Amino acid sequence: MENRIAHTRFTVTMTGALLVFLGAAILSNAGEVTAFVVRLIGCATAAFGVVTLLGHLMRAQAIDLIPFEDVVVSGILILAGAIVGVFPDMFAKVLFSVLGVLIVLSGLGDVARSRTKTADEEDAEKYTLRVGIITIATGVFLTLVPSAAVHALPIFCGIALVLDGLSELYLAMRMEA
Prior knowledge:
Blueprint (H helix, E strand, L loop, with lengths): L1 H27 L1 H34 L4 H19 L1 H27 L7 H23 L1 H29 L3
Helix pairs in contact: 1-6, 2-3, 2-4, 2-6, 4-5, 4-6, 5-6
């Protein structure tokens, strides 16, 4: 039993240390992290297109036919993934702009729902209206200033990882040896 507790404490300590290290690495390279993630998504999309095309080609050997739509979809995936992989900064901003529009639409839905409440739900109506207005403002900000979100998101993630790692380390210290 004592060996198991020591193993658990070691695991929690290592997890905490790795989280702090990862958070610090993200904080020290915030701009490159976003570009790396977008580039990774682009490469994964292109690879998925290649694998899909290869799968259709292998299937076509058995049936002597490749459906045109499958070739087009595979080609679009390969092309889109390659473009996103080559120009990650531009697509990160586009991604946050699109996300901003979706957030505005969600906020508008919240505001509309707040107007359909009964008299008994007046407090909930005020809360939903406030949340809707804040959501709309956030969405407008993301849509109009996507570069701020591109730079801020890795910082928030890095801070969250460091705090999570520190809490793991604290938990490890509190464990009985």
